[in-house]
Amino acid sequence: MTVTYPLAWPGVARVRSIRLRQRTVVAATRSPFTGHRQVQVHAGQWWEADITLPPLRRATAEAWLAWIVSLNGTEGTFLMGDTANAAPRGTARFTPGTPLVMGGGQAGGSLTFDGAPASAPGYLLAGDWIQVGSGAGSRLHKVLADADTNGAGEVTVDIWPRLRAAPADNSPVVLVDTRGVFSLPAGTAADWTIDMAIIYGLSFSAIEAL
Fold first, then answer.
1. Are residues 167 and 193 in the same domain?
2. How many domains does the structure of the chain reveal?
3. Other CB atoms within 10 A of residue 77 CB
4. Are 71 and 137 found together in one domain?
5. Are residues 186 and 123 in the same domain?
6. Are 49 and 208 in contact (CB under 8 A)?
7. Strand locations in the chain, DSSP E?
8. What is the pLDDT along the chain (210 residues), one digit of tens a residue?
9. Which of 14, 23, 42, 53 has the most Cβ atoms closer than 10 angstroms to its Cβ?
């Protein structure tokens, strides 16, 4: 059977911990004479993560090992999100509606979509996650400020990272079990430990696949 990327997250054993990192390309210089600084903001913005699994017995560990080995180092990609916060904190947790991108050609650090419940205060709260796109085009964004819907069920959400490509009009916006596409960092491959009690240890890093 041919391996098809991106792989889904293995459906066995929850992770022990996940450490998420924001990466952004911003250069800054400071004048040695005046102390004034100049900042140059570049386009690069992406997520990185370190994932640690709990101690595993072989039956569970082998499912994870087959998954990570099938990535073939940095070649393959997989879908991953914030495993501890699968649902938003806002009212979208209970009444999300059917959110769809409102209008093509959107760019920058905000996204407008409709299909949400009308006049919903706190529909999304700062720190919630949204997903734009699906499959290999899945992109994971963090909400930067509380967002209310208007009387037509429309809402504009400030997000990080910025949109890298304009999502298609009426494409779905995912609010629960959000995922982005990640890979192992360049130069890394699968490795794990097995102790005398046949307990497996596995941890790995991930970087958003752009």
1. no
2. 2
3. 20
4. no
5. no
6. no
7. 17-30, 37-52, 78-80, 100-101, 108-114, 129-132, 139-143, 155-163, 173-174, 180-183, 192-194, 200-208
8. 689 999 998 877 788 999 999 999 999 999 999 999 999 999 999 999 999 999 999 999 999 999 999 999 999 999 999 988 999 999 999 999 999 999 999 999 999 999 999 999 999 999 999 999 999 999 999 999 999 999 999 999 999 999 999 999 999 999 999 999 999 999 887 889 999 999 999 999 999 999
9. 53
Residues 61 and 92 in one domain: no
CATH code, 165: 2.40.30.290
Alpha carbon distances (Å) from 105 to 141, 164, 169: 18, 11, 8
**Residue 51 contacts residue 18 (beta carbons within 8 Å):** yes
CA-based nearest residue to 92, from 47, 128, 144: 128
Q: State which residues form the domain around 16.
A: 1-81+181-210
Backbone torsion region of residue 83, taken as left when φ is above 0, otherwise alpha when ψ lies between -120 and 50, otherwise beta: alpha
